[in-house]
Amino acid sequence: MSPAKPPAERSRLKNVALFTEEDEISSNPQAVPITKIKFPNQQPRRYFDPQKLAGLVESIKQHGILEPLLVRPVGLAYELIAGERRYRAAKDAGLTEVPVVIREMNDSEAIQVALIENLQREDLNPVEETEGILQLLALDLRKPEAEVVSLLHRMLDETKGKVPHNVMGNSETQIIQKVFDGIALMEWTSFVSNRLPLLKLPEDVLHALREGRIAYTKAQAISRIKDPSQREDLLEETISQDLSLTQVKEKINAIKLASDDRTDLAPSLKQQFDQTYRQVKRSKVWDDPKQKKKLEKLLAELSSLLVVVVDSH
Hints:
By secondary structure, the protein is an alpha/beta fold. It folds into three domains: 9-111, Conserved hypothetical protein from pyrococcus furiosus pfu- 392566-001, ParB domain (Alpha-Beta Complex); 125-200, no CATH class; 216-268, no CATH class. It has helices spanning 50-63, 84-92, 107-119, 126-141, 145-159, 170-183, 188-195, 203-210, 216-222, 228-241, 245-265, 269-283, 289-312, and strands at 9-10, 17-19, 30-33, 37-38, 69-74, 77-82, 97-102. The strands form two sheets. A five-stranded mixed beta sheet has the order 3-7-5-6-4. Strands 1-2 form a two-stranded antiparallel sheet. A hairpin with a 6-residue loop joins strand 1 (9-10) and strand 2.
């Protein structure tokens, strides 16, 4: 009696199988020339940690590729669906062929499987994770990403009672809920409140976050500093000294207090006027004929200004 086949490896979304039983990935993957594999137009991943990639290169040199890539046939070539990191490492390791599982799938299925495969990886950074979920929602809702973002914000406002409930949007709400139930990473409300804002972070903070140099909670806190120079200094200090979120917030409060102190030191316009008026009285500038003419001219300009102000009210 032959041993039972293990169940197909399936994604947690829509029951999409990353590999089917027929693929027989453990016993008979196919070897194809690495030059015949091309990237799709839309790729979920954008950044790969150089050190981790270098480690994978060494592992492949010693042991080969232990898990095959997932591809689909496109003309005389193959389009990479899952396994970009392994592909890049194999290329750096000098491999001319790589093991693959070939599956027929349309554009929509290819994008969905690629997104799912990447979302389930632990080393996907928060920015890529957010972008991937947004792409997945856009795919299932068949809407542009900008419209999906607007829909999510409206749903959140509805839950807070800020806007009336949209009955027509029930089907879209169900689709969104199903996606988040499937990927099991976070609630959709948390995604809207905590993850979507990451895509609007200042470029310097976003770049560090995308490279995995800083946690997204620290990135969000640092982004509240409007002065670019102060923000960049704190960002570098946070990364170099591995400051905790509490320490980052303490630094931000110190920056804010210092800024408030400088503002307090700067006299207001009313304070400047009062101070000038007292100085004029003490100096008795009108006793000097030359200074008197200047004073008369300035008083005339001030009177004209007052007339304009009174008329405007």
